[in-house]
Specification:
alpha+beta; Mannose-Binding Protein A, Chain A; 4-stranded antiparallel β-sheet; 3-stranded antiparallel β-sheet; about 20% strand
C-alpha cells in the first residue's frame, strides 16, 4: 500500500483492510519506528533494503511509522527507503504506508527492542556503560572530549583510546549507525535515549557513526540525540561529537 496518505488516513485505511480481511488477515497495523528500521540497509540505496530481500516493487520514498515524536506530538517518525534516513513529519503531511502484522509463530517470544520492566538494561561500570540488551560497552570518558570534530578526527580519537588501552581494552571503535540507533527511545527526548541509561547526563546533540553514506562517500551517517533523528553529516566539517564502543 504505497500511495501517500496522512498519518490518520494511513491508520484508517489499514483499519479498512482489516475489516476486509486483506490477504487473509485482520491484524495489520502501521509498524513502529524500530520495526520499520529493521528493514533498512545503509549499504544499499533506492531502495535501502538488504541484498537478497524478498520484497517486490518497493518505491524508495518516505514511509510512515506508528511512532509519534515525543518532543513534538503533532509529528510522527518516518523512514526513507531511498537511503535509510529517519526523520519526523507533521501528521497532516502525506507519506507512504507499509503495513505490518505480528508474524511470530505460536509460543515464540516477543523480539521487540524494549526489555521487560523487571530487567536492568544498562549497567554503569567504571568509565563505561554496558547495554545488557545489545552486549555493547559504551566508553563514557570519550563523551567528555574536546567537543565537536570532523569524522576523520573522530576515528583518530578512537585509535588513541586503543593505543592507550583505555579501560584495559584496545578494541574500541566508532559505532555504526545501527548501534547508535539502538540507544534511541522514541518515548523520550532531550536526550532521546532510555531514561535508565547513565549516558543521558553526558550526551551532546549529534554523534558521528562509522557508517559512510552510499549516496556520497564524503558524508557519514550521524545520530541526533535530542530527538532521535538519523541523518548524514559532511565528514570534513567539525560538526559532531565522538563516542566509542566495543
Amino acid at each position: 500500500m504505497q500511495f501517500p496518505l496522512t498519518w490518520d488516513e494511513a491508520k484508517e485505511r489499514i483499519a479498512e483492510f482489516n475489516a476486509e480481511g486483506w490477504d487473509g488477515y485482520s491484524d495489520w497495523r502501521l509498524p513502529t519506528r524500530s520495526e520499520l528500521f529493521t528493514l533498512v540497509s545503509h549499504a544499499r540505496i533506492n531502495p535501502a533494503l538488504p541484498a537478497g530481500h524478498l520484497f517486490e516493487n518497493v518505491f524508495p520514498g518516505y514511509y510512515w511509522t506508528a511512532t509519534s515524536c515525543s518532543r513534538f506530538p503533532r509529528q510522527a517518525w518516518y523512514v526513507h527507503f531511498g537511503g535509510g534516513r529517519i526523520f519526523r513529519g507533521m501528521k497532516h503531511g502525506s507519506y507512504l504506508v507499509w503495513p505490518v502484522r505480528d508474524g511470530r509463530l505460536k509460543g515464540e517470544e516477543d523480539s521487540g527492542k524494549r526489555p521487560s520492566a523487571d530487567q536492568i538494561r544498562f549497567q554503569h561500570r567504571e568509565g563505561a556503560v554496558l547495554d545488557r540488551f545489545t552486549g555493547l560497552l559504551w566508553h563514557v570518558p570519550a563523551l567528555r572530549g574536546n567537543g565537536t570534530t570532523t569524522w576523520q578526527a573522530a576515528l583518530d580519537q578512537v585509535k588513541e583510546l586503543n593505543r592507550r588501552r583505555a579501560l584495559g581494552y584496545e578494541d574500541w571503535r566508532l559505532p555504526n549507525v545501527r548501534e547508535f540507533e539502538s540507544l534511541i527511545d522514541p518515548d523520550s527526548h532531550s536526550p532521546a535515549i532510555y531514561p535508565d541509561n547513565p549516558l543521558a547526563e553526558e550526551l551532546g546533540d549529534g554523534y558521528w557513526s562509522s557508517t559512510t553514506s552510499v549516496y556520497n562517500a564524503a558524508y557519514s551517517w550521524v545520530i541526533y540525540m535530542q530527538n532521535g533523528e538519523v541523518g548524514v553529516g559532511f565528514k570534513a566539517n567539525p560538526d559532531f561529537n565522538v563516542m566509542a564502543v566495543r
